[in-house]
Amino acid sequence: MQGCAQCEIGFRTFEDGIAHLRDTHFCTDGGVPLDSTCEGQRLWLRTATQVRIEARVNTFLSLIEECTDAFKKLAKIADDLRSGSLKFRDAEDTHGYPVFESLVRAFEQITIILVFSSDFMARADRAMRSDPRKALNGDQFRSQLKAFLDQTVSRAQKDLEQAKVDIILASKTESRPGVATLASIGPEFMIAMMSSGLFLRQLKERPDYSTVAPDNDIDNTEAKYVNVGEMYKKYSNKLQLQVNQKPQKRLISDIYALEEELDILLLLNSWQRKFCHDFSRVLDPGSFRMTTKTRLSYFRTENYYLLKTIRRLEIRSNELYGLKNHAEKLRDRLQQRIEIEEESHGKAIRVFTFVTLFFLPLSFVTSFFGMNTTDIRDIGYDQKLFWITSLPTTALVIGVAYVYGYKWDSWKENSSRRRSTRQMERDKELEVQVSRSTVLGRLFHSDASHEDVEKGHPQRQDTDLSVRSTLPRKEKARRCILPWATRRAVPIEREAHPTC
Hints:
With 500 residues, the protein is an all-alpha fold. Among the domains are: 5-42, no CATH class; 202-208 and 223-379, no CATH class; 387-455; 460-496, no CATH class. Helix content is 73%, strand content 1%. The protein has helices spanning 5-9, 14-25, 38-42, 48-84, 101-130, 138-172, 187-199, 217-221, 228-245, 250-283, 293-369, 374-377, 383-455, 473-478, 484-496, and strands at 203-205, 224-226. Strands 1-2 form a two-stranded antiparallel sheet. Helix 4 packs parallel to helix 6 (138-172), helix 9 runs antiparallel to helix 10 (250-283) and helix 9 runs parallel beside helix 11. It starts with a helix and ends with a helix. This is Putative Mg2+ transporter. InterPro entries: CorA_TM1_TM2, MgTranspt_CorA/ZnTranspt_ZntB. GO terms for molecular function: cobalt ion binding; cobalt ion transmembrane transporter activity; magnesium ion binding; magnesium ion transmembrane transporter activity. One of its GO terms (cellular component) is plasma membrane. The chain crosses the membrane at residues 351-373, 385-405.
């Protein structure tokens, strides 16, 4: 019984339940119950299994009622549309109205309602069979189906209202916008359609599981579909918010990663458009030597569909280019803000460094003169000694720090440059000396060899040590090497007997 706390808790046995009914619910003024038979009272009691079955049946009835209400809403508009589109028998147009695109879209929405409702009920049945306790939460299933049906029915209603406008325009004017025509297609059109579906498909976005109830299995199986451009636009807006709120260097790597992904998507988009253009040129009957009327009729539909796909790809390409430009501007803005913050930090560091360099030598000298030793404690000088010692020390420390911080690199670079210059000059002088000695040696060698020739001294090419005089072993064995005196006697005889 509703409103009874004991009935909601339940009873251990039928007898306890019957006693509760007699004492609480079916008790009259005279103390005689209205239904005194046990069999009649048992009808008011249910076991746990019967309760789950009834809850499951009630859940399906509620789901069917939601589907029926949705179709009733559409049926009312469809009846008005049908009544308004009836023609008289003496009307000139005996063919009736054409099929408008709005009617086709409305039919698609109705089909989606039928398919989704049946699939939803099947999934709900599996969920209740796996966990019978879910049958008690029928309102949860009903609310989920109702949310989807309301969204789909609203789209179907808009399409039916647009169909009314199309029918009125078609009956009043000769132009018939948005007419759906039938055309024959071939396997080439199926390839183009599948390619377009792959190119322009949306990405599945899973819901946030942290906000989903643990018992809600239906929500976990549902997913939202988003466009590629919308997904990257959301991520770009998120990066922009982080840059404006808290600029950090790690965001630069995220922006670079976004730019790389956008470049990849733009390259892929260009390949997709090139495929559509090439496929359209391949299907063009003008590219064949001989064609048929069937090919011509097929190409009209295929070319229209491919051009439509190319236009959609160009729109996506423009979106990606816009996101890339936005990412570049965002990166430049982030770098500028980081540089401004680093400049302010650098000023603070310089001030802190100057204060440290000024007071640290003073503290050192103070500590030095404050040591508790006899040679320092018993010095008979006044405060003048402290300043004479501390000021030069402070100036020396500041000068060394300045040189090391601002001039050390330049000095080091200049010294290395001068060292390399001196080394190059030494190398050049050494090369000049070597070249001079080589030239002089060649001159002396050439003069000596000339003198040897004039004197009749043997040359290298005239001996067995030269390459020119290298002969096979047999020829070397047969060759007779004349002694030095014989070789020298030949020019002497020629000088003694000159020829005319």
